[in-house]
Design a protein that fits this description.
single chain, about 120 residues, alpha+beta, elongated, binds zinc ion
Length: about 120
């Protein structure tokens, strides 16, 4: 992925919009699950999800101001990257997208874990 000049701002915007999505989910859940305060959010973040965790925490604190999640603690669970190597025919650990297979050097890897972010659990009241 090519980032334009001043790419850092672009990255922060990315995390900001992720946090806005998280807050949307929390507010939708609050309506259907009948809670009015979020105390803790456990967030699973894959190593390949291209999420900058410091930027995410910073954005989260900004986004939740004045919301039901204003006091919420953010717990991050990092999920390692894993891919299926079609040459070795086995799962291999990958550190970043477009890594080569650590065993055979093949680039025919299909990422099957660690490329997503999701809310795993909530503590609410
Ligand atoms: Zn391989």
């Amino acid at each position: 992925m090519h980032l334009p000049e001043g790419g850092m701002a672009g990255i922060a915007m990315h995390e900001l919009s992720l946090c806005e999505n998280i807050l949307q989910v929390l507010e939708q859940q609050a309506e259907s699950q009948q809670y009015h305060k979020v105390k803790t959010v456990w967030l699973e973040i894959g190593a390949l999800a291209c999420v900058e965790i410091d930027a995410l925490r910073f954005s989260f604190d900004a986004v939740v101001q004045g919301s039901i999640a204003e006091q919420a603690k953010l717990e991050i669970i990092e999920i390692p990257g894993q891919a299926w190597c079609t040459a070795c025919r086995r799962n291999v650990a990958v550190q970043q997208l477009y890594d080569l297979c650590p065993h055979c050097g093949s680039y025919h890897l299909q990422v099957n874990s660690g490329d997503q972010m999701r809310i795993k659990e909530l503590e609410v009241e």
